[in-house]
Amino acid sequence: HANFRDLAYAKADVFLMCFDFNNPQSLTNIETFWIKEIQDCKNRDKLAAMVLVGCKSDLRAESAITQAMIDKTKDSKSCFFSTFNDCSAKRMDGVDDVFFSAAQFGCAPWK
């Protein structure tokens, strides 16, 4: 599947980098795998926005993921995130905001 992802990355205007509030490893994977994979894509000929998305925000109160951990990822020197959104599909909280951010930053004039 990695080969197919490279083809898709070349034409992407926005990357939604999603993690699960119920799974701290998913936030770590953004820093240790996904950011590097996107940046290493040889076919990138344009800038693309990156939106950090916390999924299952209805579980945030019980989550082992702290705001400091989110801020560390969001402010990482290896990547610039255009924004951070959290959402809960279960409660339909913030889902519209995620897609609004994707549309807003995907159509940004700086690309």
Structural class call reads alpha/beta
The backbone outline, from C-alpha atoms, is globular
Which percent band covers the strand fraction?
Answer: 15-25%
H/E topology pattern: HEHEHEH
Number of strands: 3
Tally of DSSP helical segments? 4
**Rounded Rg:** 14 Å
On the 0 to 100 scale, the average pLDDT is 87
Mind describing the biggest β-sheet? Answer: 3 strands, parallel
End-to-end Cα distance, whole Å, is 27 Å
Strand order of the largest sheet: 1-2-3
Query: What is the helix content?
Result: 40-55%
Low-pLDDT regions:
none
Please describe the structure with a list of short key phrases separated by commas or semicolons:
111 residues, alpha/beta, 3-stranded parallel β-sheet, 4 helices, 42% helix, globular
Structure summary:
With 111 residues, this protein is an alpha/beta fold. It has helices at 2-11, 24-40, 67-74, 95-106, and strands at 14-20, 49-55, 83-86. The longest helix is centred in the first third of the chain and has 17 residues, at 24-40.
